[in-house]
Design brief:
The structure holds two protein chains of two kinds. By secondary structure, chain A is mainly β. Helix content of chain A is about 0%, strand content about 50%. Classes of the chains: A mainly beta, B mainly beta.
């Protein structure tokens, strides 16, 4: 998992509540990513950021929001508009355009359960 | 549509045998491929990658083969060990995609002692 921290490991919320997942990296990486993983499926990209103060929607951005105010941090908010928020959420970081743009290194993940 | 898929969802091998995990992709413009290993409840770990200008790349006990003609990628693990038991994902990217990775659904490798 390298220098990527996600907290907490398990998170429980009631339906209708917004929840923010933390992702911090100390690898001095420019790029950061958020993925969602559901059972029996691969990873799907939610949002990504290639540089501070900039981010782009991935394939399944609806119901999610992000910010990138610091290089080290890329928090993900799961809003009440997300219809099926229960999933395993993975954060990744990589050198981005300044280095090897394809490389991504993953954190340990946060398992979110919404009831 | 554009996709990265796997031939087999599960693979069971005996300890010491070689394992081969396959992956098919559909976009001929894909020019970068990567394999990840994910143990239960953890984040994926980088194993090996390969660019489209190569047919083969070797790492420690692992080899990735790329056949661009049939759009097929494989990961070979030599002398498979119980610690190799995990889900293996292939992913692809291509120039012009903002370096985004598209992941396959994964193959569960089980190593029997």
């Amino acid at each position: 998992d390298g220098g990527i921290t996600q907290s907490p490991k398990y998170l429980f919320r009631k339906e209708g509540q917004n929840v923010t997942l933390s992702c911090e990296q100390n690898l001095n990486h420019d790029a950061m990513y958020w993925y969602r993983q559901d059972p029996g499926q691969g990873l799907r990209l939610i949002y990504y950021s290639q540089i501070v103060n900039d981010f782009q929607k991935g394939d399944i951005a609806e119901g999610y929001s992000v910010s990138r105010e610091k290089k080290e941090s890329f928090p993900l908010t799961v809003t009440s508009a997300q219809k099926n928020p229960t999933a395993f959420y993975l954060c990744a970081s990589g050198p981005g355009l300044a280095g090897a743009p394809y490389e991504q290194y993953f954190g340990p993940g946060t398992r979110l359960t919404v009831t | 549509g554009e996709s990265v898929g796997l031939h087999l969802p599960t693979l069971s091998v005996q300890e010491g045998d070689n394992s081969i995990i396959n992956c098919a992709y559909s976009n001929s413009a894909s020019d970068y491929f990567i394999w990840y290993k994910q143990e239960s409840g953890k984040g994926p770990q980088f194993i090996i990658d390969i660019r489209s200008n190569m047919d083969k790349r070797q790492g420690q006990r692992v080899t990735v083969l790329l056949n661009k003609t049939v759009k097929h990628l494989s990961l070979q693990i030599a002398a498979t060990q119980p610690g190799d038991s995990a889900v293996y994902f292939c992913a692809e990217s291509r120039t012009g995609s903002n370096y985004k990775l598209t992941f396959g659904k994964g193959t569960l490798l089980t190593v029997n002692p």
